[in-house]
Each structure stands twice: as structure tokens, then as C-alpha cells.
């Protein structure tokens, strides 16, 4: 394609980058405001959002969700750069990440945002158009250039082995936590994870005991209840680093996080005193028992029922996709206690005790049966279908002591669960980047390393940029949570974007491996399988986009 005669910049970084990114943000805000108004006009009936209209115009609504996610991502990327600049820590690598990130995401806002491989959210879907000018036009034209990507990868090669490519902006205490868990993952998880995956083995109890000693299961549980009382930000860093080693290990803490959050938010004083110290120490392992065969994300319609028998309850019904169900001690079990209801009302949450299973007898507790679901990835803890037939739950183990509060109690955990899932996605993406980069360094073709080819190095550059974008969006969500601010919107966005970033990183890293990436012996084959679940659990991408749209429009 012929060039118009203007000379390309000789330096990779724009001299007025900070001014350009700051000036571009109001342009994005304006587009988002127009898009929100356009979708609202499509779905409002008599001043309220119509569920039926929202479903009819689902593509437009989800396009709005992705646009809003990009807007928030750019806000947080810019805020990260400003904080680093104020601390005199905004180096060349960080400036390149900022520039490439803004250039690429602005270009996608103008031309189309990938919601999935075959679905592009375009402004024209919302009846809008945008001809970028000023700062946005400059960043689109000169932000994500081959020279910028090439220079970023040069710096990455010089810094290979660092915990992150680019300063995270977190404080020293959180970075010390990162170093501790990165070392642990390198020593105890990375050398073994692929073997666990290939053999489809449970993560050894020895690893679980070590995680308990490190405080993983009581990370955010208050000190009064035997936990460490640390921030959600610390939980994010720990989840990120353990998931970088293996998503199964990074997800072990999720079970305890969900159970503890349920009990802290909805439990009685006695329940907190009884359960939280044991969860924090790892003495008991919990599992979340919510999903049913025919409900999926529609938890309000679940049918498993709990009937009062004397002072206790008897549970009958079926559950599916229950992670780590066999060898755990307690289930956070959602069941219908009011048979007259057919929606989220009438659901109750139980702390249902069970006997941990063995390989020979995975489900020894009376009234309970189970079978394994074989899966592509995310192994380590295994997935199960469960059946309950007169399964007994003590009356004192009804969460909060009042029936009918189960769905509300569960909703209170969604912010933390989605932040933690976003953190796991970052860890998986970081793992893909590091494995892909190492292979690109080692593999020689046509007389030189693969990383010397622009299509290979460009993939690595974009992985690093998008990981930092997802990282900053996730850290912001955790900061909001730590400061008692509502963050369901930000947490949903972090999860939505993080899952896509992880899948793209894994897919591109496998592509760098070529045919070897398709071989089971190479780690990237596992990382790809592990990355795929992130767009499905804790709210599938489509459900997540629907929830974000509803919040934006309400």
C-alpha cells in the first residue's frame, strides 16, 4: 500500500503521550454516553428497561457492555500511568504499554470490538458513527505501530524473568506477597502441574497443606476469626501468581473465599465462630453447590428442595458442575425451602456437612451420590454431578438461621468471586505469555529465533499490553471492594475482559508453538484448555455482558 509521503516517526514513543491519552478519554466518554442513550431508547418502555426488549436487542446491549468495559479499561490504564509518573516510575516499557494499549483499544472502538471470535461489536450496531479526530486520531495512527511493538518486545527480552512486564503500580507489601507466592509456584507448582493435568489427578493434599500454612484459605478472613485479615487486593495478587503456576492451585482458595464471604455476610454469630476459623486454617475444605442440570446461569429457577424434618432439613435433588466435591468437608448448598415459589424467592443457603471421600469411595455420606464429569482442562480438583435423596442437614446449619435468604446471600459474594476470577485469568494469561515467549526465543527457523519475526513478536507485545490492561481493571475493582464501594459493575468488566485476554494469550502462544503446541507434552496445550473455562464459569461471557448492560441502563 502506498504511503502518503509523510515520514513515519523515528522514535517508538510519542513525545506528548500523557497529554494525548488524557485528551482521548473525554472523547471515549462522549461516545459511551451516546451509545448508552441509543440502547436505552431501544429497550425502555414507559421509563423502565423492558426485559423482553433487552433480549430482542441483546446484541446492541452487549455491544454497549463491551464499549463501557473498554472505556473503563482505558480510564484505569491512564490512571495507572499517572500514578507511576507521580512516583517517578513510568519507564519506557510502561509508556509503550500505555501507548499501544490506547492506540489499539481506540482503534477497536472505532472499527469494532471483538466480543468473541465471530462477534464484533460495532458502533453502527447502535446507530452511531465516529470519525476520530484530535488525540484519538493521533493515538490510533501512531500508537500501536510495528516500531512500538518491536521496542516493547526488546525490553521484555531484557527483563525476561521479572514477575510482570511493566510495573504494576501496587505497593511494596503487595509486591512482597507476589514474590513469595511466585517463588512458591515456581518451586512447587510449575514443575508438577502438567503431570497432574495429563494424569487427570487431584492436586496432592501435600500442596493443600502447604497453601494452608501460607495462609491462602484465610487470606481475607478477619483476624478475629483466625484469618490474616488482608485486603482483596492481596487476594488478587495471590490468585494471580498461583494461577500462573496452575489454575487448579489458584482456584483452591476460591472455594474458601466464597464460603467465607457467605458466612461473613449472612451467617449468625455462632456460625461465624464455628466455621470461619476452620476455613481459615484449612482444617475444613468447602465446595460451592449451586448449579443444577437444567438451570445453568438461571439460578433462580433451581429445583433442589429442602424440607424441614423436625429441627433439621432433608435435601432432595440434583446438582452439577460441582468443583472439588469429593474430598471436601462442607458444602455451601443452595436449595428451595418454599415449594410455593418458582423464582429466586424461597431459596435458602445451607452449610451442609459431609464426610470427605476417598478414591475408593468418593461420596460416603448417606443420602448423597456423585459421579465425575471428565473435562478438557481446569482439572486438579475435578468436576462432579451430585444427587441428593433425603440428605440430612442440621437445622443450625441454615445460613443466617432464616429461610428464604439464599439468593440474596449468594448475590453478596458475586463481586469478590468475579474479582478473583479476573485475577485467575491474569495468571493464566501471564503463564501463556511466558511460555510462548520462551518458546519463541528457543525455537530457530530460517536461521534465527522465532521472536525475531514481527508476526511473532507482535503477538507477544499485545499479550503484555492486554495483560496489563486487564490487571489494572482488576486491581481497581479490588481497590473499590477494599474501600467499601459498590463494584459489581467494575468486577464484571474485569472478569469479562480478563477471560477474553487469557483465551487470546493462550491461543496466540499455542500458535507460536506451531505443531508442537498441538502436542500434549507441551505445557501450552494445558494452558489453552485451562484458559477456555474462564469465559464460562462465574457467569458466562454472555451473561456477564447482560448483567453489565442492565446495570448501565438502570
UniProtKB/TrEMBL annotation:
Similarity field: Belongs to the acyl-CoA dehydrogenase family.
Cofactor or coenzyme needed: FAD
Classification via InterPro entries: Acyl-CoA_DH_CS (IPR006089), Acyl-CoA_Oxase/DH_mid-dom (IPR006091), Acyl-CoA_Oxase/DH_mid-dom_sf (IPR046373), AcylCo_DH-like_C (IPR036250), AcylCo_DH/oxidase_C (IPR009075), AcylCoA_DH/ox_N (IPR013786), AcylCoA_DH/ox_N_sf (IPR037069), AcylCoA_DH/oxidase_NM_dom_sf (IPR009100)
Span of domain Acyl-CoA oxidase/dehydrogenase middle: 289-389
Domain Acyl-CoA dehydrogenase/oxidase N-terminal: 172-283
Pfam families: Acyl-CoA_dh_1 (PF00441), Acyl-CoA_dh_M (PF02770), Acyl-CoA_dh_N (PF02771)
UniProt superkingdom: Bacteria
Record keywords, A-Z: FAD, Flavoprotein, Oxidoreductase
Protein name as annotated: Acyl-CoA dehydrogenase family protein
Residue ranges annotated for the Acyl-CoA dehydrogenase/oxidase C-terminal domain, each copy included: 404-553
PANTHER family documented for this protein: ACYL-COA DEHYDROGENASE, ACYL-COA DEHYDROGENASE YDBM-RELATED
